[in-house]
Write a structure and sequence with these properties.
The complex is a heterodimer of chains A (about 100) and B (about 190). Chain A folds into two domains: about 70 residues; about 35 residues. Chain A is about 70% helix and about 0% strand. Chain B is elongated, with a radius of gyration of 19 Å. The chains are: A mainly alpha (about 100), B mainly alpha (about 190).
């Protein structure tokens, strides 16, 4: 077993999985609730993006075990994710999706 | 951790798992491009129906909850396989596949109702980008369901013991990835209109 292999930690137990599921359920309820509240209209997009990002991170860290596995897996996943995000934002600027371009 | 059937590379990591994470990385780029295309063309349809007129948030919220719960069932299936608990492994693998099928049922309902309301792949930019994005995701869910059913059959053949837990973990990585993609689609396509 190499040092890197040894750096992997034990996966969480059933209790943690259930707690994460409960948090995911609550965040989804909040997302849908926020969508229907007119007062949130001006800040709807940022609020929903933060909540969605939180759900994304919870699933990736705990259910996909990225928090506990080797840092190399984290790197292999995060780099293309950031690249996709960067390309997406660049395309939106290029096509004027933010109301700034053509 | 499930290392029983692992083949380690010079990195000290299992080769199958390493390759699968690389595959997931490439999938990030695929879905990133599809989501970007949807966003770039958002609100540029010349004719209707548009997002506000057609998307059914309550129904999609239920299917989102269904997919989230399938992720829970998947991690519980992996835990049961790793422990050698055949009964619960079969139950949770079956539950994950069933929840995946329910999600596909919701998607089928949504697609057919949209077509009846006049939105097809050719109607407008929204129709083209929406059906390609959610259809690609649905195809991934369908592949995941088939994969899970294969694992379930292997379990009934008594060929899915703790030594094969890595195979279940890799199937789980795929399933959770499909889930996180839907988390993004649900927010970007359905909630932020």
């Amino acid at each position: 077993m190499s040092a890197e292999h040894a750096s992997e930690r034990a996966h969480p137990g059933t209790g943690t999985y259930l707690a994460i599921a409960a948090v995911l359920f609550i965040i989804t309820l909040v997302e849908v609730g926020v969508f229907y509240v007119p007062a949130f209209k001006p800040v709807l997009a940022p609020v929903l993006l933060v909540l969605s990002g939180l759900k994304f991170a919870l699933v990736v860290m705990f259910y996909m075990h990225l928090k506990f596995d080797s840092p190399l897996f984290r790197l292999i996943f995060t780099l293309p994710l950031l690249l996709a995000l960067g390309v997406g934002i660049a395309l939106m600027f290029l096509f004027g999706a933010f109301g700034l371009g053509s | 951790m499930t290392h029983a059937a692992a083949h380690y590379t010079s990195t000290g990591l299992d080769n199958k798992k390493l390759a699968f994470w690389a595959f997931i990385g490439s999938e990030c780029l695929l879905f990133g491009s599809l989501i970007s295309t949807y966003l770039v063309y958002k609100g540029r349809s010349v004719v209707g129906p548009t997002t506000q007129e057609i998307l059914n948030i309550p129904v999609t919220s239920v299917s989102t909850f269904d997919l989230l719960m399938s992720s829970l069932a998947m991690v519980l299936a992996l835990a049961a396989v790793a422990k050698g608990d055949k009964l619960w492994a079969r139950f949770w693998l079956g539950a994950t596949a069933f929840l995946g099928l329910v999600f596909l049922g919701f998607q089928f309902y949504e697609f057919t109702s949209f077509v009846h309301e006049g939105l097809t792949l050719k109607t407008n930019l929204f129709g083209s980008t929406f059906f390609v994005l959610t259809g690609t995701h649905g195809a991934h869910v369908a592949v995941g369901v088939l994969w899970l059913l294969t694992l379930l059959v292997r379990s009934f053949q008594r060929k899915l013991g703790p030594e094969k837990a890595l195979n279940v973990e890799i199937a789980g990585l795929y399933w959770h990835f499909v889930d996180v993609v839907w988390i993004v689609i649900f927010t970007v396509v359905y909630l932020i209109q």
